[in-house]
Amino acid sequence: MTTVRQPASLRDRKKLRTRQALAETAVSLFTERGFDGTPLDALLEAVEVSRRTFFRNFRSKEDVTLTAVKELWSAYVPALEETEKSGRLTDVFRDAMLTTLDRMDEDWYPRFAATLRLIEQSPSLNGHSLRHCAEIQAEITRRLGAPDGLETRLLVECCVAAWRCALDEWLPDCSPGELPGCVRHTFATMHRSMGIEV
Question: How confident is the model over 63-112, as pLDDT tens digits?
Fold first, then answer.
């Protein structure tokens, strides 16, 4: 489970609470009213913060809505650093993801599932998510320590595609305990389809 280190100062703790309130309220509000049809001012009113406070914490309405996705990848990068890199790159990617999911807080799973549904429903949010995914893929490729070339980029693309397939399998029920099994299943299927021994 993730253990969030609490900021030392009162000001930092208040800022963290504001960020969390904005992120959690954004997902519930936009789920209820729709992302594209709900103005940012409705979120600010619900959380009772000013535009200035909002923009000190987030760049945009899309940015705050994707908090759960960004939390996942922020936890994934350190997990990737810790994962043994002597095996296949696809195994390294999978193992780092399983470690990351094990570290996520129980409260994160429903927010993440709700965020994925919002992404499916909103073209602007989907575009923002794809841009973030491209940035993360470049970071993953760099941190894998593999030779930078077409083969590495293709393997990372395959891993991201397997991850997305795992999410598609998981989304109907969204049970937190089921997501790691979906990840294992999609990666095993990918290996078989690529002719790699599982």
Answer: 999 999 999 999 999 999 999 887 888 999 999 999 999 999 999 999 99
Distance (Å) of CA 35 to CA 45, 142, 189: 16, 33, 34
Domains in the chain, ordered, with CATH?
Answer: 10-60 (1.10.10.60), 66-193 (1.10.357)
Please tell me the distance from the alpha carbon of residue 198 to that of residue 190, in angstroms, as a whole number: 9
Q: Which residues in 157-194 are b (16+ Cβ under 10 Å) and which e?
A: ebbbebbebbbebbeeebebeebbebbeebbeebbeee
Helix (H, G, I), strand (E, B) or coil at 88: coil
DSSP reduced 3-state for 100: helix
